[in-house]
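Notebook entry, structure prediction.
Reason for the run: the old model in the group folder had no record of what sequence produced it. Starting over properly, with the input documented here first.
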Amino acid sequence: MKYSASSVWENKDRYDIVVVGAGHAGCEAALASARLGFRTLLFTINIESIAMMPCNPNIGGSSKGHLVREVDALGGEMGKVIDRAFIQSKMLNQSKGPAVHSLRAQADKADYGRKMRGVLQNQENLEIRQMEVTDILAENGKVTGVKTYSGAIYHCSAVVLCTGTYLCSRCIYGDVSTQTGPNGLQAANYLTDSLKSLGIRMYRFKTGTPARIDKNSIDFSKMEVQKGDEFVVPFSFTTKIEDVQIEQVSCWLTYTNEKTHEIIRNNLDRSPLFSGAIEGTGPRYCPSIEDKVVKFSDKNRHQVFIEPEGLDTNEMYVGGMSSSLPEDVQYAMYRSVPGLENARIVRNAYAIEYDCIDARQLKSTLEFKNVEGLFSGGQFNGSSGYEEAAAQGLIAGINAARKLQGKEGIVIDRSQAYIGVLIDDLVTKENHEPYRMMTSRAEYRLLLRQDNADLRLTKLGYEIGLIDEERYQKLLIKEKQIQEEIERVEHTNIGTSEEVQMLLDIYKSTPLVSGIKLSELIRRPELNYQCLAPIDPKRKSLPYDVAEQVNINIKYEGYIKRQQRQVEQFKKLEDKRIPEDIDYDEVHSLRIEAKQKLKEMKPSSIGQASRIAGVSPADVSVLLVYLQGK
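New structure, fully documented this time:
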């Protein structure tokens, strides 16, 4: 859709970096660039929608909780804000090992947006402007500014695109189709053409959201209550644990049934998802209820989570039942679920289509390969989820700032963080559906736990300039405390006293026949560092997070060391850089397909080249031999 303002004028205010879009990616990008000293202008179609949560009312979850804590460890904001705006918190997967433990917090949506907006408005070097950006301006393949719907031109040296699901977006349910963004907000209908004129390839993706139900119309007696954890762990490493021990609200669990499924099956011909009215590709790992009923026909029920959207609203989110079915079918479908027999819909469920990019056009720094100074983050990159968006926005904002500093961009690799896995997957793999982060995607997940994100990344955040001296010194103290306590535990002998044997009996642990190191007791599956405190009289009082690290590092020492050796091998390939000006036609014995893929993707290292589809291990060996001979 072409657009040309009736008059064009030049805004004389000079900005260093322009961020387009104020969702979770845009917020982190704008804060990062401003905090690094660059005058930043953040554009949003509607100021009231800053940090909006148009779908689920929670932050974190399996693998996503890892991303939030990594964003926080690098100096981002999401973790701090959710710690101030949550209404329920849970550590997921606690029955499993620490590698997959993940925090998830139910958010008060309105409060989360207000608090993030307050942070943005009070950030030095950052201005917010409500206006639609229609054009990216570039000369000789380099960004020079942006143009808005009003015809204003804003000059800058770098642009970060964080448009989310707003580009040419269309909301659909039944035969109702509206050219609008999420929650009925204005769509951004003109920027796509500008991007295409710059040679950027676009995809059409889809996602969806369930209905919101009036709390007063729900019979909770027919549902299972889902309470939060008694002891709440904060997302941010800067939040005091005592500050998050609040009174929490409950969520509720119910299930679909055969009646629900019959209603859906009888109306599939009216679903735009199955009729062909929806063109975009939807997320495999967050399917609509129609998809679930069709693809998992052997299941006679599916979980439905009823979650509050905030403390000052009666709207309840119907998790697990996103849909694009017609309004009358939605009423019948939801009212077939136990507890929802008299449900009153506040907002209809809908699917949303939107334009996004093929992220393989990006460098690992999230800068476009063919447009210097143009960066990109969030769902615009073909990902899904608030947390994935925030992580990308943070890295894009950091690297836009570093571009202007004349410094090399930050690239976090797969062995350092889930953020590294996320970005590497996006820029090297062909994704024909919205990408979702999962713990199974991380090869080194025992090292990339959510509990040690600060130990992995806060030094990097300090070097970048987003972590202040006080926080950095606290990290050094924490590291010292952990190391000293591990050494003490490794050298502490425990005898066979009656007190020891009684404690072991309580935990059904084999009694001792001779003395043993305290560390060996910790390694027993049924025991841990915390529960052995009564027989460890010389133990100092340590913070919760320090004790947690001592326990994990001792209990999983063998597995951790094995994975560290794997990382060493991985690093050898990642450290072998590929020159930007390499001519792959000169690399004899490379297959034609491999040459084509390598020319297209322009990998920065041998390791990255090895993860490109169409490049075989034999091709990698040929390339490695070629580079060694240069």
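Summary: The longest helix spans residues 469-490.
The old model has been moved to the deprecated folder.
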